[in-house]
Specification:
This protein is of the alpha+beta class. It is built from seven helices and 13 strands. A hairpin with a 2-residue loop joins strand 12 and strand 13. It is elongated, with a radius of gyration of 18 Å. The chain starts with a strand and ends with a strand. The relative contact order is 0.22.
Length: 223
């Protein structure tokens, strides 16, 4: 099924200029065309149209999957908030005290991946060793990439916070967090943020994500 994603502006990659009223035509899991909405709409009048407020960009990559998904426990907000709070729990002693089964670790990772999708993340880097955690990542749609060179995100020097959550953190230019480009023939993998342009994307932050698309599927939509 053809889907035409239209945004207030389209930023196809790190070195590109924003295209006002840009659009992305998706067929299944691939992008078939990128350009002005009017042009693509005329080319594919039968396509379902999704109109997004804000800036459409490549999806983001987050470095530190192991720290986030295996070395932290993300409490269930519905059933564990009273006893454990809502913030990730870290530390060997603290995690040991929880007596985590592999199933609970997998459920924790699943909750964390949902939060990543809500920030426009489409890929994570790291080496995962817990099968249930790997399964949670696979099922989420996120791409698992090898650890970043030097074990940290580009632009991040020195110690990094134990539980990475914001793909923009530590970057001189938030466009460094882009994973690939939005281009015809490429994978339908992008995000939309409530921002006017690249300059305002840092101020808006990754939490301003409106939608995340991976493999042509809408995996997050702000309600």
């Amino acid at each position: 099924m053809l889907t035409l994603h239209r945004a207030d502006a389209l930023l196809t990659g790190r070195g590109a200029d924003p295209l006002p009223g840009g659009a992305v035509l998706v067929d299944g899991g691939r992008i078939t065309a990128v350009g002005p909405y009017e042009e693509l709409g005329a080319r594919a009048p039968q396509a379902r149209v999704r109109r997004w407020p804000g800036l459409l960009t490549p999806g983001l990559v987050l470095h530190g999957a192991r720290e986030l998904l295996e070395e932290a426990y993300h409490p269930d907000g519905q059933f564990e908030a009273d006893a454990l709070g809502t913030e990730p729990i870290t530390g060997a002693a603290e995690l040991a005290a929880l007596g985590l089964t592999e199933a609970r670790r997998g459920n924790s990772a699943r909750r964390a991946t949902q939060k990543l999708l809500a920030r426009g993340v489409v890929a994570v880097t790291g080496r995962l060793t817990v099968p249930a955690v790997r399964t949670a990542v696979d099922r989420s749609g996120l791409e698992l990439l090898p650890p970043a060179a030097g074990g940290a995100a580009p632009g991040v020097s020195g110690a990094r916070r134990a539980v990475p959550a914001d793909p923009f953190e530590g970057l001189a230019d938030v466009r460094e967090a882009f994973h690939g480009v939005v281009a015809a023939g490429g994978p339908a993998r992008f995000a939309v943020f409530a921002a006017a342009g690249a300059g305002s994307l840092r101020e808006a932050g990754s939490a301003a994500c409106v939608a995340t698309v991976i493999g042509g599927r809408l995996l997050h939509r702000r309600r």
